[in-house]
Amino acid sequence: MNNHMLLLAAFGAVWAVLSVGHTLADHVLGQTDHQAANKAAPTPQQVRDGADPHRGWSACLAHVALYHLVVAGLYALVRLAVPLPATLLGATTALLWSAGTHAILDRRWPVRLLLERTGSPNFATLQSGGISGPYLADQALHATALLGSAVLLTRL
Which parts of 25-53 fold into alpha helices (H)? Predict the structure, then answer.
């Protein structure tokens, strides 16, 4: 198998582990109820009413740390059975990219702002029939950021 095919196989395997790790960490093992309820930034109205604009950062960063412990643990377990790539530079860069994007997205206002600015203000507030527009957009953006992490981990 040539190097190009090995790189493609490694990228696919890394993407799969990060994707499964994300779902496990964001929904099962990597977030407490307290973190989920308190990680978002206060709304502009809450800030106008006196809320500290930095409120929520401690819960957000605690979630991001726990989330990445779960993902890293899963990656390490899979790596025992499958020869996944991992250089120190690639792992560090991928981790920093993932943690940074995850923390920003989980403050919630960036997702809301993106939806509003791209012509989806109704989806930014949709809460109907068990469907949450902001949650779906959040998950899509996390998956996109993880795609970047997979590229960084595979290529560096």
Answer: 33-38, 44-48
Tokens 């991001």 found at: 64
Which pLDDT tens digit goes with each residue over 79-113? 999 988 888 999 999 999 999 999 999 999 999 99
pTM for the complete prediction?
0.88
Contacts of residue 71, defined as CB under 8 A and 6 or more positions apart, other chains included, come to 18, 21, 22, 24, 25, 30, 98
Give the burial class of 113: count Cβ atoms within 10 A of its Cβ; 0-12 exposed, 13-18 middle, 19 or more buried: exposed
What is the distance between the alpha carbons of residues 34 and 48, in angstroms, rounded to a whole number?
24
CA distance 92 to 132: 33
For residue 71, the model assigns a pLDDT of: 96
**Section 54-82 average pLDDT:** 95
Consecutive H or E run containing 113? helix 109-117
